[in-house]
Design brief:
The structure is a single chain. By secondary structure, the chain is mostly helical. It folds into two domains: 15-44; 46-79 and 86-272, no CATH class. It contains ten helices and four strands; from the N terminus they run ββααααβαβααααα. The longest helix has 56 residues, at 186-241. It is elongated and about 90 Å long. It starts with a strand and ends with a helix. 28% of the residues are buried.
């Protein structure tokens, strides 16, 4: 089998440096500020950690099914890696597929290697002769299912981002109660005040440095995936309807920004490639 579409590479995992740099930079600056202000040991309090971390996880388990919570790590991994083909070479492959189908017939696409699974599924439906309306329904259902999975993972992270500051406040109230109840014992005021303040700090850090930014990154990643899948959907529908390859190419390129667009190949260039 050979691969159509010059420059098109199979979708492979690549590290999202923006996520890594953002997390490392945020925590590094926070730690530097802590070290410059005194001993870092004073910012470690097991009781505060148990209140915030345990409470956040517990609240997530209450609000969501156990399977969804346990699968959050897999969803979060999408914020650290990219496994999507670039749109420009993907469009080039779809254009080449449409030219091959027009020249040799739809069955000729059966032997073509297509790395991106969603496009491969759509082309397979074309080869099998599935009606366009039914084909659209099948592909849109898969897009909807993927969007739902992404949304569920984002919702869990958003919920944790909201719960962490709330449990930080609960810890603050617990610490204040303990402090007020032991005013006659000066030695107990310090630990109680540490619980009161550090739980708020832990809650804010978990929410604003981890959960909410990762939830926003997953939203961006989901939008990117839906955009690529929509390009494939429109391309496959044009392929199924027997549209002109140049018309398919122009239609798909309209989804790209001007900076991403390359001049479409002429028929002669496509055949030469």
């Amino acid at each position: 089998m050979r691969l159509l579409g010059e420059g098109f590479e199979p979708a492979a995992h690549s590290m999202d440096l923006a996520t890594v740099i953002g997390l490392v930079l945020s925590w590094a600056l926070i730690m530097v500020a802590i070290v410059l202000g005194g001993s870092p040991v004073m910012f470690i309090d097991p009781a505060s950690m148990m209140i915030v971390v345990g409470g956040t996880i517990g609240a997530s388990l209450i609000k969501n099914p156990l399977k969804a919570v346990l699968g959050t790590a897999k969803v979060v991994s999408k914020a650290f890696s990219v496994k999507l083909p670039d749109a420009e070479p993907l469009i080039g492959q779809i254009s080449d597929l449409s030219r091959k189908a027009r020249k040799e017939g739809m069955l000729a696409l059966e032997s073509v290697e297509i790395p991106y699974d969603f496009l491969g599924k759509g082309v397979g439906l074309c080869v099998d002769g599935v009606e366009p309306a039914e084909m659209r329904a099948i592909l849109e259902m898969e897009m909807f299912a993927r969007a739902q999975r992404h949304a569920r993972g984002r919702a869990i992270l958003d919920g944790m981002g909201q719960a962490a500051p709330a449990f930080g406040m609960i810890g603050t109230l617990i610490g204040l109660v303990q402090m007020l109840a032991s005013l006659d014992d000066p030695s107990s005021i310090g630990p109680a005040m540490a619980v009161a303040l550090l739980t708020t700090l832990y809650g804010a850090l978990i929410s604003n440095v981890i959960c909410l930014p990762l939830a926003d990154k997953l939203k961006v990643r989901a939008e990117e995936e839906m955009s690529v899948m929509n390009i494939c959907l429109q391309g496959v529908m044009g392929l199924s309807n027997g549209d002109n390859p140049n018309a398919i190419d122009q239609k798909l390129r309209s989804a790209l920004s001007p900076a991403e667009r390359e001049p479409p190949k002429s028929e002669e260039e496509a055949e030469a490639a």
